[in-house]
Amino acid sequence: MKYWHIGFFILQLGVDLAHSVTAFPFVHYGMFSQSFVRPDTLTVFRVSVDGEALRQTDFAVYRWDMVQGPLEAAEKRTATHDFAFDKEKLQAALGSFYNGLSPNLNNTGDFVPWYKGYLGRLLGRPVGVLKVEKLSYRWTDGRMVLIQTENWING
Amino acid sequence: MDSGAQGGRYARERQALLTVYGIFYFAVFGSMIGQGRLLSQVQPALWNFNRDVSELVVIASGLPRWMTAHRGSFLFFDILLFALPLAWVATGLRRWLGVVFVLFLSLYLLLADIFWQVHHEPFILYVLLPLALITRKFNEVLKACRYYFLYIFISAAVWKIARGAVFNGEEMSRILLFHHSELLTSSCDGLLCRGYTWLIDHPFVAQLLYAGGVLLEAAFVVGVFTRRYDRLLLALAVVFVVADLLVMRIPYWTLLLGCVTLWLDTRPRQLAIVVYETTHHENLPALLDLCEMRFPRVVVFLREGSFANLSGSQSPETRWPATEFVVQAPAESNRQFIRRLLRFRCSHLHLATLDNNLLLWALRLMAAPEVQVSVTIHEVNAFFARPLGSLRDVTETLAKPLLRLRVRHYHFFLPAMAEHFRERMPKASTAFLPSRFYAAPAPAQRSSRPFTIAIPGSVDANRRDYEPVLEVFRRWPAQLPPVQLVLLGDSSSEFGRSLVAQLRAQTKVRHYEGYIPETIYEREIREADLLWSPLRIHKTGSRHNPEIYGRTTASGLTADILLNNTPALAPAELILPDPFTVAILPYRGAEEAAVLLQGLITDARTRDLLRQQIHRAFSNFSKENFAAAFDTLTALDQKGEEGSADAIKAVQPNIQ
Q: Nearest CA to CA, how far is A118 from chain B (Å)?
């Protein structure tokens, strides 16, 4: 049993050192250890439902995460072309075996209808018109100053 | 030596782990319902690559794709999330079901991260801790989980130092800006938001917070080398979570499950019993006899006065040579004394008197689930009473349910008390042990001395009815020899002095004021021809609660009577079990008492026969005859269960 424990901690340490990749249950405990560079702009999603913008202060922490989290994930999916880089790496590693798996890897769902439905369940009312904007801010003189607004989702 | 997961070893620790785990598990996943985070609530349609190999395997398996095409599967998974642990517990922690539960929980967490990015970090111990209950290596797995919990913090500290973040003077300011960007774009008129703004603009102060966090995380290194500071680390973990919530608005309380590994102390403990006594030292002798018989090490924590009067004829060290006595120093407060006691690493703790600091005891005992605790109950009704009249009442009322939850083994001086207690707390394990064991009759007294009657106990109108005593001597026949009456208790009260004066007008009286040293007390009892216990059966208890002698509380008579084979006059209402009954001469009033008393004085043969009968009956009060009851009290009879958890070195009880 002792060797199992030692093996577990060696793997954990290895994953921790590898840093960019994890293998559940071996995860990385950094807790805000990466050195942050002061960003020029900060992007925030403004979600409006039927013309009314949702405010963070009206939501508990986790519920607000569930409003914002899917948007961040969707943005990342779009930016990475549905994680094309990861799939390339996987293909390189698996060779021909990859072809059999690829249908399982590719997202085919439509984000906007799903998000509207989920948001409706979260808010407890149907979502008629959904609008998501990407707002770019800059921290100036002790406050956030809006410098750009970009329409992202209209549905 | 380890037995199976269902076996007896570490039973108490396993139960504690299961309880804590269950509370956290259902609180964490139950709260997800309110947050709309269960699979069936989210009904995801897309998945994410999070650079986790295990997640990649799950995605490649086609399960996420299949689930998004079959929405009913989400509800099925949610039902399993709650039903599997319940089924596991309901089936008595069947090993195979435990394995299924752990695998399923792992899969659920992977899916949660794949679908809506639930970070795994605070959940790993939810997967690892059940292994302690599944495998045969409870202690080893729990120890490993403890190291893992320490590792979480140490790793976080090391990374912050290794990557130089702690040396970057603006790190925290930037983190706050990035992390709270959404909140900062709002009106930001709340106290917290204004606080974040201030910290962002004061990077040095913000960085001090960051450095403080790193120091706190690094402090967990201590736990790698010693368990001495585990409770302090537990407190630090709570501080960390609270600070995380305040500064980062991250509700990381899920992580606190790991505190159970710091709370449960499974280090090997010696088989040793610690006895705590404050005011009722006269009830200790039998307990100490049995402790010495069954435990290789016995330590008694008691007050100076109790120590001095513990044993009437010998010093405590001579009478119990294998017992260590720790006497409370005069300047030492009760709380200091209790703290000192709790630092003693014993397997068993017996509270021979628990009439002070109940809340302190309750909390400290809750914090030490690995110790087998038993308590002597002196007043049953008081133990269940819920007074709220004073601060002390309130704290005791709060403490009692905790004590009843923590302590399952109770000791009583009468079987009727134990029975009555079980009616109110059916799950309790109760044991009747007398105050002392009967040794042998005292040497016969000189025939020339007057017939001596001892009335033990302080002269107290609440507890004793002296009217029959006065009445008997008021009508004492002139042809009978005079009687020597000994009031064997403090008679310094106004009532006591008045009683002494009234009795002196009728017979010879010897009385005492203040505390009577045990040597004198026991000598008087042994030399008496008759004991008289004029009890008021219904009395007011120590907390002004109604108590009934013989049913909810025991009179000191049950201890005194075992010092010799002396008969005792007692009200007929007082019901005592065999073999006490042989020695009890019950009376319904002064007339009956007079007849019994005069019969004894005039008939020496009856007196001798009665003494012989008492001697034979009391011979049953031997430690050998009560060893089984003591084993029940200390759970030593539950071999491999509570009393002899893995934590205790395997020492067979030494039956002499």
A: 6
Q: How confident is the model at residue A19 (pLDDT cuts 50, 70, 90)?
A: low
Q: Residue B506: exposed, middle, or buried by beta-carbon count in 10 A (0-12, 13-18, 19+)?
A: middle
Q: Does B422 touch chain A (CB under 8 A)?
A: no
Query: Which residue among A29, A43, A146 places its CB closest to the CB of B121?
Result: A29
Question: In which band, very low, low, confident or very high, does the pLDDT at A1 lie, cut at 50, 70 and 90?
Answer: low
Looking at the structure, do residues A65 and A3 belong to the same domain, yes or no?
no
A99 is a domain residue: no
Domain count, chain A: 2
Q: Is B186 on the interface with A (CB under 8 A)?
A: yes
Q: How many CB pairs below 8 A link A and B?
A: 192
C-alpha distances out from residue A23 to A32, B211, B255, Å: 20, 30, 19
Choose the mutation target among A6, A27, A40, A138 for the interface with B, i.e. most B CBs under 10 Å.
A27
Provide the pLDDT for residue A56: 86
Domains observed in chain B: 11-263 (no CATH), 270-437+629-644 (3.40.50), 451-618 (3.40.50.2000)
Q: Tell me, yes or no, if B41 comes closer than 8 A to chain A by beta carbon.
A: yes
pLDDT in the model for residue A12: 79
| Span between the terminal Cα atoms of chain A, in Å | 56
Phi-psi region of A148 (alpha: psi -120 to 50; beta: other; left: phi over 0): beta
* Interface confidence: ipTM more than 0.95: no
Using a CB-CB distance cutoff of 8 angstroms, which residues of chain B are in contact with residue A20?
Answer: 51
Ranges of residues in chain B with a pLDDT under 50 are 1-8, 640-656
Those residues whose C-beta lies under 8 Å from the C-beta of residue A104, and which sit 6 or more positions away, are: B59, B60, B61, B62, B64, B65
